[in-house]
């Protein structure tokens, strides 16, 4: 954790990207716009336009990838024998291994291209960052809950008397400006709604007549007291649609979800359970993905929603720094002593 805390957080002014779709996704563009980062596309078929990045990929292949079990080389002609029969890492496990290698290996390894301006000796990325911070200064900027919401995917919806309907679920809260136009004529006066695919128990509606967001809870949230993702909902909805019941489909789905997650949470009993209570292979995959999604780090969003009139909340306490904040102001002199000869 000491090495992880020393990993620099660089705030770029410009990002040069190639033509891959992942680099021009709505979330990526929205994040750059939110943070004030300029985007510059590289011309098609010109890897030399971003030669530093291409060279970094080569270093990752030689310093990390080639030592990983199941490494297949640059193409299929370099693949080893019987790769599929070996115990391979999952993508999530590989991501964890790579993140740890970046912290413990790459960031602390001296680079030929990084030289101290005073002594000329080779520096690691962490040492070079301390050198530049000592010269240019450093001001920590922590992301808030509102920044997290700004980076979520969104859709546009009408605020009805019952709230907002999304993907077969109804969300509602007190103080929602129902049946009112948002004022965004380009979206036919609908309201912008942010959602998290790995936590569908609530959504957020932007307050177009003020500041902040309205937090809307799923109306059946009390029936499912467990982490809930969108793919978990879809699985339960398919099963609920086949049930013979007079209850609304949304209520039936909530009951199926509660039963599925409750059985998964109890674990296997000592005696073989009846076939009706065991999880099917598909259900086990859904539960595993649900738990993995719930384990992802998300900032706590406990800010109160705007009032009925859209008035701004008193923000006297929002600017205070919590007593247990993990990062303080950067001490350039202290960090300089760690790399000076």
How would you describe this structure in keywords?
10 helices, six-stranded antiparallel β-sheet, alpha+beta, two-stranded parallel sheet, 341 residues, 10 strands, Nucleotidyltransferase, domain 5, 2 domains
**Major sheet characteristics:** 6 strands, antiparallel
Ranges where pLDDT stays below 50 over 5 or more residues in a row are 302-327
Radius of gyration: 25 Å
Oligomer kind = single chain
| Whole-number tally of structural domains | 2
Number of helices: 10
Percent of residues in β-strands: 5-15%
- Give the ordered list of helices and strands: HEHEHHEEHHEEEEEEHHHH
What level of helicity do the residues show? 25-40%
Distance between the ends: 25 Å
User: What coarse outline follows from CA principal-axis ratios?
Assistant: globular
Main sheet strand line-up? 5-8-9-10-7-6
Give the overall pLDDT as a whole number.
Answer: 77
Number of strands: 10
Derived structural class: alpha+beta
């Amino acid at each position: 954790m000491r090495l992880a805390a020393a990993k620099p957080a660089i705030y770029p002014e410009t990002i040069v990207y190639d033509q891959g779709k992942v680099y021009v996704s709505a979330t990526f563009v929205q994040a750059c716009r939110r943070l004030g980062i300029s985007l510059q596309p590289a011309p098609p078929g010109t890897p030399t336009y971003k030669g530093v990045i291409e060279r970094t990929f080569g270093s990752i292949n030689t310093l990390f990838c080639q030592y990983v079990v199941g490494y297949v080389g640059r193409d299929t002609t370099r693949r080893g024998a019987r790769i599929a029969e070996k115990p391979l890492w999952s993508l999530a496990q590989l991501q964890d291994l790579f993140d740890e290698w970046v912290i413990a290996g790459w960031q602390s390894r001296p680079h030929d291209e990084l030289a101290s301006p005073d002594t000329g000796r080779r520096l690691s990325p962490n040492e070079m960052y301390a050198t530049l911070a000592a010269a240019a200064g450093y001001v920590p900027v922590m992301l808030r809950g509102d920044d997290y919401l700004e980076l979520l995917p969104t859709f546009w919806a009408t605020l009805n008397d019952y709230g907002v309907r999304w993907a077969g679920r109804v969300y509602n809260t007190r103080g929602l400006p129902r049946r009112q136009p948002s004022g965004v004529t380009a979206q036919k006066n609908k309201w912008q709604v942010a959602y998290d695919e790995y936590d569908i128990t609530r959504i957020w509606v932007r307050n177009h007549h003020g500041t902040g967001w309205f937090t809307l809870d799923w109306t059946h949230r009390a029936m499912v007291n467990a982490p809930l993702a969108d793919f978990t909902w879809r699985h339960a909805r398919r099963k609920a649609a086949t049930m013979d019941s007079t209850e609304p489909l949304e209520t039936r789905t909530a009951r199926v979800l509660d039963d599925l997650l409750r059985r998964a949470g109890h674990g296997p009993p000592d005696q073989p359970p009846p076939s009706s209570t065991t999880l099917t292979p598909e259900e086990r995959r859904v539960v595993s993905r649900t738990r993995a999604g719930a384990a992802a780090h998300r900032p706590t969003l406990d800010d109160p929603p705007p009032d009925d009139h859209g008035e701004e909340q008193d923000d006297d306490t929002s600017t205070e720094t919590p007593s247990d904040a993990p990062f303080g102001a950067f001490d350039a002199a202290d960090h300089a002593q760690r790399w000076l000869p």
